[in-house]
Amino acid sequence: MSQTGPQNQPDEALLDLLVKQVTEGLSPAEQRELDVLDSATASSYLRELERAAAAITLAGTARAEPPPAALSKRLEAQALDFLATTGRSDAGNKVVDLNRPAKVAAPRAAAWQGAGWLAAAACLILAVFGWVRSPQPASAAEQRAALLARSESMKLDMSATKDPAAAGVSGDVVWDPLTQQGFLRFVGLPQNDPKVHQYQLWIFDATRDQRYPVDGGVFDIPGNASEVVIPIRARLPVRTAKAFAVTLEKPGGVVVSAREHILVLAQAG
Length: 269
Prior knowledge:
Blueprint: H1 12-23, H2 28-62, H3 69-85, H4 108-114, H5 117-129, H6 140-148, E1 154-160, E2 170-176, E3 181-187, E4 198-205, E5 214-219, E6 227-231, E7 241-249, E8 262-267
């Protein structure tokens, strides 16, 4: 039977350096130490560790839930087959339960001698990367870009009014009538003090009384922001969006705007 992968269990110091190279990267001094230990052997082990790290990273970013039981059993069987074909009979029946969270502080020395060097290294990589990474929420700008890519979405440019507070303001609105989601993008909208006043979006629906546009939510503009993306929070379903307007209101917003300070306006059609 042909065998693949390194045949001998690596030195603990060498393995520590290899795992660190895969997960964090080495300092120049550590790289020199790795070269002195055994560059040929290190290169062979490194390929397998990189594959393990890549698989773990992909698994962690693909989903936030434990793998299905059937998949776990198949992965466990493949792990045993791999250890058997690479001459690591010391693995026995010790297989990591993929449905249980990995322990970050596992005794290294025992791990190297227990379930085989590759399984131990994979466990350490799991501890560094995490089997299940908490999905990072997309930024408002990323969500806006994704919404803009939808064929159903509409994009309207915003025009500043003659209100002094709107001088130099520009931007646009992206709105998807199917998902009822949207985003405002502003450039040059002044910072506000939430204790004094807040901005409020109004959505004019062609199927509703124009005296009572749909409240699109209140929002603030932080200081030193060249461009700001704000999610739209429509209080009611919008059947046919005709226009979007932003006013300056008291803290918390109002139910019906007097429209004394309309700063920007975007119209469809």
